[in-house]
Amino acid sequence: xxxxxxxxxxxxxRRGAPCTAGGFALLQLAxxxxxxxxxxxxxxxxxxxYIGESEHVAAKQLISSLRTALAVRSARAxxxxxxxxxxxxxxxxxxxxxxxxxxxxxxxxxxxxxSALRKGNWYFDKANSTLVYLSASSExxxxxxxxxxRFKVKLFRVPNPVKSEIRSEVTxxxxxxxxxxxxxxxxxx
Length: 189
Prior knowledge:
The protein has 189 residues and is an alpha+beta fold. 40% of the residues lie in helices and 19% in strands. The chain is built from 3 helices and 5 strands. A 5-stranded mixed beta sheet has the order 1-2-3-4-5. A hairpin with a 4-residue loop joins strand 2 and strand 3. Helix 2 packs antiparallel against helix 3. The longest helix is centred in the first third of the chain and has 56 residues. It starts with a helix and ends in an 11-residue tail after the last strand.
């Protein structure tokens, strides 16, 4: 560093002026920290809905996988045991049909206290044979949607047309349906 420049910096320090040759002045650093905090806050605020949406999509994907597994399981049950096979499948835990259970599956419970269970997880309620998802994010679903989803395997019967050449008068099958009476019923279809 030259002697003239060094002397000028020494004079600036004596007058109380900030030293900027080596980096930011304290005020500049504070302003940069405030601007960075504001930008980070806005960015995080914008990302929260995406976190909720990813949770919703993951739940929909699992339900779709369970419905596919149910179709395979139902076909096997009809081939082996007819209508009785379908009734027994309707009482099974849908997670048992998967090759690998999801990491956020807590297991089977008998009428658990939902507030005591970790959010963002699935469980099977053996008391009423329902599969329940407890939402982790308050932004996961729309405001009119509950923060949990309940699914149950239900037997359905569809009458065949009157002039049908099929011997059976009724077609039976199973479906994994959302049993909430709130607007969530359309959320997973």
